[in-house]
Every structure is written in C-alpha cells, then in structure tokens.
Design a protein that fits this description.
Blueprint (H helix, E strand, L loop, with lengths): L1 H22 L11 H13 L1 H32 L1 H5 L4 E3 L6 E6 L4 H16 L5 E6 L9 H12 L4 H10 L6 H10 L4 H8 L3 H13 L7 E5 L4 E4 L1 H8 L4
Parallel strand pairs: 2-3
Antiparallel strand pairs: 1-3, 2-4, 4-5
Length: 248
C-alpha cells in the first residue's frame, strides 16, 4: 500500500511540475522554456514536495465540493419537478407516482443484467407505487457493444417498444451485435427502415444522458437516484424495497 501511495504521490508531483512549467511558457507556442528557469522550478519542487501534495489535495477537495453542489442541485430539481428530469426518457411502472427511481444502465454490463431481475420483482410487488426511468449510460470505453445496443434500444423506443427491446438485450446479453439488433427488431414487428434511420439519430439523446451521469459523478453501472416523500438522492438497489415500504 505504501508503494502505491508513493507512486501516486510521485505522479502528482510530476503532473504539478508540468503545470508549473507550462504556466511559465510565453504565449508563443514555439518558444522554448528557459533552461535556467526550468532548473530553478524543478529544484523548488524537489525541496518542497509537500507543497505540491497540499495543492493537489486542495484541488481535489474543491472538485469534490463542486460535485456535491451539482448533485444536490440536481436532487433539488428532481424533487421539485421530476417530469423535467425524466424528460423524454423511457418509463414504466406507475404513471403518476410521486416516487421516481432513475436507473443509469449499460446493456453490456453484467451487473445491470442482474439488476433487471430485481427491478422486475419490485415492479410486480409495487405496481402503483413508483415510476422507473431508464437513462443510457453506455460504458463504451470498456464495452464494445454498449453504445450500439443503446442506439438500437433508443430506435425501438421511437416505435413504442423500448421495454420489450430492453428485455431482449439483457436476456441475450452474450449475443449483443448487429444480428441480434436486427432479429429483435423483426420479432417485435418494428419498421426496419425507420429503425435503421432512427439509430443514426440516437447519438444526441444518449450523449445527453451521459453528460447527466458525468455531472452527477456516477462511477459505474448500474447507478440509481431516487426521489420520494421520505428519501431523495443516490440509492442502492438493495435499499429501494425498504424505502417503498416507508422504512427509510
């Protein structure tokens, strides 16, 4: 653990040094840094590494405070006007419930597939007690089919078949790919011309969901945010049942 912390400490020092050296550059992009000034800066850094660590920690704390403020602002808006937060996202469950559960999910995430089973049980157990909202959070950096699957699901939504398509993708998660996307569209009797056309238009609404996830500082999938009379904020799926029962 000490070696890991030391490694991160060194990285922080190096990164901060780069910033300092960068700040000292003249406006002209092709002007080289004065070697004497560079050595002076590096010498100061070598002698006073704790100052750099303190600066990095202060910066991280400030960023965390900004994130908390942004998240609290979202939660306040969510409580005051849930429909504005829901927007054009797919919903299921109660149509006029004051309790809303937003799910940020990735069709290639195995944990999201497991979560769907629990969500289905909750929807059966509390059919008129909460509204489930789906927000796209495809982790395309690590899941090759996450974004294509999301665009296909969005296209299905344009023909009123989001949840059927959603279930098919999670049920056949190991077969995600173009063949599955088209076969599922055919099985659901979607207009294939419109389906293929709508897939090309899906980027903006999906990016909107991704930006929201980034604004909220969500680190993975599935992630949940809930608003009810007794609770408002990020929530674990295992806690939702107790909240719906009014125990939290």
């Amino acid at each position: 653990m000490f070696k890991i912390l030391t490694h991160f400490r060194n990285l922080a020092i190096i990164s901060f040094a780069c910033l300092i050296l960068g700040w000292s550059l003249p406006v002209q992009a092709d002007t080289k840094l004065n070697p004497q000034l560079e050595q002076q800066v590096l010498e100061i850094i070598r002698k006073n590494p704790e100052i750099i660590i303190e600066a990095v920690e202060a910066y991280q704390q400030k960023q965390q405070q900004k994130l908390q403020q942004s998240r609290q602002g979202f939660i306040n808006d969510f409580q005051a006007n849930p429909q504005a937060v829901i927007g054009d996202s797919p919903t299921t469950g109660a149509t006029k419930s004051k309790t809303v559960l937003i799910e940020f999910s990735d069709f290639e995430c195995p944990y999201c597939a497991e979560a769907q089973k629990e969500l289905k049980d909750l929807l059966v157990k509390y059919p008129n007690k909460f509204t489930l909202v789906y927000k796209h959070f495809p982790l395309y950096q690590i899941h090759e089919q996450a974004l294509p699957a999301a665009t296909a699901a969005w296209a299905a939504y344009q023909q009123g078949k989001f949840w059927e398509y959603h279930d098919a993708l999670f049920t056949n998660q190991k077969q995600l790919g173009e063949t599955l996307y088209l076969d599922t569209a055919k099985k659901l009797n979607l207009n294939l011309t419109k389906f293929n056309s709508d897939r090309k238009l899906a980027n903006n609404p999906i990016q909107k969901d991704l930006l929201l996830a980034q604004k909220l500082g969500l680190g993975g999938t599935p992630s949940f945010i809930m608003s009810s009379q007794n609770f408002a904020g990020p929530v674990k799926l295992t806690e939702v049942d107790a909240i719906l029962q009014g125990k939290q």
